[in-house]
Each structure stands twice: as C-alpha cells, then as structure tokens.
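Quick log. Single chain, no ligands specified.
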Amino acid sequence: MALEIRKICTFLEETLVEGGRVAPRPVNIVVVAAIIPNPWAGRGFVEDLRPEIIRIAGELSHEMTDRLLRQMPGEKIEACGKAAAVGVNGEIEHASAMIHTLRFGNPFREAIGGTNYLEFANTRNAPGALLSLPMMHKSESGKRSHFLTANFQIADAPGPDEIIVAIGASDNGRAHARIADRFQDIAEMEAEKAKLA
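-> predicted structure:
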C-alpha cells in the first residue's frame, strides 16, 4: 500500500432500544476512520491542492470502503456519509480536499449502490475531540428517517499535522422515525398556499 496511514479505527454501534421502546429492528452503524499525514503540512499556503488529492483520495477511498464492507455488506446499507477533521496546524480546506472529490466519493457510493451525494462534515479538531459523521439515505434525499449522525472519537488523533478521514453507513433509519419526509412537507405547504390563493 502506497498510502501513508498511521492508524485505521473501526467503530460499531447497534441500537436495540430507543426512547424506552424496543426497535422494530436494530439500527447498526459502522464508521471507518483513517488517520493520515496532512500532505500540505509545513508548506505554507498551497494554491493547488489537486496533485495530492489525485495521489491520495481514490486509493484511500478504496481501502476504507473495503474495510467498511467487511463489517456491513453493501446491499444492507441504507444510509451513508463521510467526514474529515484536520489537525490544528492545518486548514479546513485540507480536510475538505480529501473528501470533496469524486475520486473519494465514487468508490464508496458505487460499492453500496448509492445515487445521492454523500452527506458530510469537515472541521478542525485537536486529538480526542468528539467528531460527528452525518448520514442520509443512499438514494432518497428527502427520506428524513435516515438523517442520522454517528459520533466517534480517537484519543490520539488528529495530531496537529494529520487528517482524520472517515466514512460511515447504517443498515436502517432511526429506530422510531415519525416525522414527515421532505417531499410530504413540500406537498402540504403547496396545498396550504393554494387554499390561500
């Protein structure tokens, strides 16, 4: 592997009871997070980030996707997302650069049969900070039952000159989802406007 990866962490969560009520089926979430050196660290302001994006993003995505699929097969995945956190010496743009490229997103999306963009978070953090990885349904953007967030933390990352890159997936929506989908809201609001006209 040509990638410089210091550590890969995998987080598994299974929710059986929510709101005091047993879930109709458990909600399983998996997050795979890789800690890599920030390729722009110590170089001052770098105008063109593309050479490192091209060099790293695709291979990193394939490696992380393979690991995630060992925990949750693609055909079982309903929701997904991604996140990146740069260490305190880096720019938010460095975190963004690793995940906001089709070179990173497409291998994961294609492996799970997704058609939506990947919900995302990019931030700057110190080691051990609680990180959030938002998710949405892999194909139905307005399906609010699948608006989920996985929280995780890594005690020694990101270091000042590192980036945490993470992908996450769920095999279900929230345990007892009971709010309207976005498209139902739109239809209701249009009907309300029509009545007032």
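The CA atoms of residues 130 and 153 lie 5 Å apart.
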